[in-house]
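Q: For a teaching handout, I want to show students what a protein-ligand complex looks like in token form. Below are the inputs, and the small molecule is 1-deoxynojirimycin. Please produce the holo structure.
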Amino acid sequence: MILANALFGAWLLSAAPTAMADTCQGPIDHPGEAFSYVQPINTTILSPYGHSPASLPSPNMTGNGGWELALLKAKQFVNTLTVEEKSWMATGQPGPCVGNVLPIPRLNFSGLCLQNGPQCVQQGDYSSVFVSSVSAAASWDRQLLYDRARALAEEHKAKGSHVILGPVGGPLGRSPYNSRTWEGFAADPYLTGVCMEETINGIQDAGVQANAKHLIANEQETQRNPTFAPDANETTYIQDSVSSNIDDRTLHEIYMWPFANAVRAKVASAMCAYNRLNGSHSCQNSYLLNHILKGELGFQGYVMSDWGATHSGVASIDSGMDMTMPGGFTLYGAFWTDGSYFGGNLTRAIQNGTIEMSRLDDMIMRIMTPYFWLGQEKNFPSVDASVGPLNYDSPPDTWLYDWKFTGQSNRDVRSDHNDMIREHGAASTVLLKNERNALPLRKPGNIVIAGNDAGPPMQGPSLRADFEYGVLAGSIGSGSCRFSHLSTPLEAINARARKDGSLVQSFLNNTLLTTTELTWPLWNPQQPDVCLVFLKSFTGEGEDRTSLELDWDGNAVAEAVASHCNNTVIITNSGGANVMPFADHPNVTAILAQHYAGEETGNAIVDVLYGDVNPSAKLPYVIAYNESDYNAPLTTAVYSNGTYDWQSWFDEGLEVGYRYFDAHNISVRYEFGFGLSYTTFNLKDLKPKCSAPSKLTALPAKRPTEPGGNPALWETVYTLEAEVSNIGDVDGFAVPQLYVEFPSSTPTGTPPSQLRGFDKVWLPAGKKRTVTFELMRRDVSHWDVTAQDWRIPVGSFTFKAGFSSRDFRAKYDVTLIKA
Ligand code: NOJ
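A: Here is the structure, written as tokens, with 1-deoxynojirimycin included.
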């Protein structure tokens, strides 16, 4: 039913109306474009799970949102290509980079070099290893995220990479057992969305193309790819890849959300994932690629496959995929031989009319427009010859093209980035516990360093495997890095202790530390001033985690040391959540989660331990009491052998991460957004900054789609402010956070608290300041599956501001009524 007047009368004010300054931007909605209010919301007409209806044809790019000029250049370029050249531009080739597009020398086009990854130049010698993405997310610091990405991209560019295969918007961390959460950001779409946007801006401002991956719901490694009979080609599966089955609302509000931010940031490309979505392969899911990504979100760039995620030619192309990787003629087994789908077959499909030339032209324009937009045709550094031999995706003996290398090889691209990495490492270290004033350290006379995570890795500079000895500062797989320098905790603490004249004893063998026959205590004199215990958790691409405990008997090491040392400080280097039973031990006085902190991990932890840096990072996920407290277990096995039997039902809906724990009132050890400081902050007086819009429609005005979707979704509709003060005696950064509790009229399944704003502000001791939270239309809307649009619900909103998802210091209620 269509009601005549669809306008909301006003953001009706809270019980105690506050005098509001009228100096802010008013409502952005176009008053003349009121929308019909469709009700009731009838979810039963749709299947509880999303489906993937065909959405054809693939939308052509328009270049709108700032790429118009670049598109003209791309069109001119495409006009000069033969059909074969066009086909091969959409098809990767073995070569020096992890993904390669062939040069076309007659057009002075030197090809495209696509390189991993999110933390470093994966194939880079003389390059830096930055803090991992999960560490960067834990900083809750937009500037840090931008700076890190920009510096990373500068190094990539200097090595000749046109495209960085990152950032990672999924896995989001639906389950803590996912082993790639360290390559992504946070188990929350809002925080991940901000991280995606800052990272993409940083990368692309440096002139390198970013790639938002993995689209979408790539939430487990297990069965991420089909299994094949040993002698089969890709048309005969034993079992197909896992299907992430997600309802429409959850897809929009959780998993697509960060990708919408990515598109809004004008990301050059997106990588479709290995897994299926709602029964259809991500790379040939026309609903996902044509309808949502290119249609609803107005994505202007190109969709490339994850390596080997292409399972068809014509179907994938019609469904919106623009580039297949690694592409043609690769010499791997069945797993990798997707090349034949594109290349020559694409040319034939054009010649026999199965695919229209206009579709192929759009594919190439999508590939070339970001190239021209970023000025990559002008003086772009050549590919450094040294990357080729380090390429294990297509090693030199697989190359068919005679790649020519110019310019210096083994370029040192590190600049002075290690200073930044050290700062970032400290800024992303989360202080979880600090009792009896354990930290910061004050010139301790007698220090014990314990745990197998404190020293140097014993297996070389490239972290390819789980190893017993050595600090974990990165991990394996396509996100792995080659360290050209690594500051270890052992080395950094020793250096600091020497300055202070402290005694240092180290015990790095976990087996010895947990062996009962040993005569404890091992140290001398008998009671050290502090025991610093370094423990780790290895997580990496290809194999999900099976436990959230610390590796190498880490929990037992923590207990053993704590039982002999009354001031035990635990430091973890882990890819994601760990359970921490030792946190209850009275002698465990402090705990720090440092994640994978890159090449300056040792110096960075010293900066925090000794108080040169006041910790300010916050958990980007939940640390539960027990492993069994987490929901959404991965699908680790199926008990039948049907081709399509691997199904992962995302039936927790929106209850991902803290949303689940809150909805079910489950106590947690450390909640999302939590992290201590050496000072104390307060927050009060949460209130609107200015008058609320007087005419706010339930649905957004329909504006022409821009990158990111309907621009009305990104406009501020309401601004709140609060006062934050540093009431302790140490200067530091506070991270005020804003969560929204939606009105009861919102469809069921809406979590009690959802992050919708945060800031990171420097506050000298004793000072206070005002922070503002700007809420965009999307932030106060839910995805209405019937209207197929974002709807602001009527009723009472509660805005909750504080220092974590469970530590609210001030609330503000706003009631929306229908006019
Ligand atoms: C597979 C990974 O999923 C992806 O993240 C990576 O970029 C490609 N391989 C290329 O190495």
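A: Two things your students might notice: The radius of gyration is 27 Å. The CA atoms of residues 29 and 671 lie 36 Å apart.
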